[in-house]
Design brief:
Blueprint: E1 8-12, H1 20-37, E2 40-44, H2 48-54, E3 58-62, E4 65-70, H3 72-75, H4 78-85, E5 89-94, E6 97-102
Parallel strand pairs: 1-2
Antiparallel strand pairs: 3-4, 5-6
Length: 108
């Protein structure tokens, strides 16, 4: 609960260990409170699709360094995700925002 009138709310993995329904509910609640009370939310998140859906601005960091900043579409590219995470993904646009989909590596 937000007990005072903060200018900035810092969140560390607010959806960690939550199923997708509870993660969505949590982020919707944070977004509703943020818009009503007009404060800034800074959240560290590892779920790139949720980050894209709820983030107005995205910062990607690796090893304590800023790698990229901008809109989710600018930051969450296939190339950058591979560079930072070593992951093979597809990035599709859904309702104007990126959705990051892991690609299965084929073993021969």
């Amino acid at each position: 609960a937000v007990a005072q009138e903060p200018e900035v709310l810092l969140l560390d993995e607010p959806t960690s260990a939550l199923d997708i329904g509870h993660a969505q509910e949590t982020l919707e609640l944070i977004d509703t409170v943020r818009s009503r009370r007009e404060f800034t939310v800074i959240a560290a998140m590892h779920d790139l699709t949720l980050t894209a859906q709820y983030g107005d601005a995205v910062l990607m960091m690796a090893d304590g360094r800023l790698i990229a900043e901008g809109t989710a579409a600018e930051v969450l590219t296939v190339e950058r995700i591979k560079e930072v995470y070593g992951a093979q993904v597809t990035v599709q646009t859904h309702e104007g925002r990126p959705a990051v989909i892991p690609r299965r590596r084929l073993h021969s």
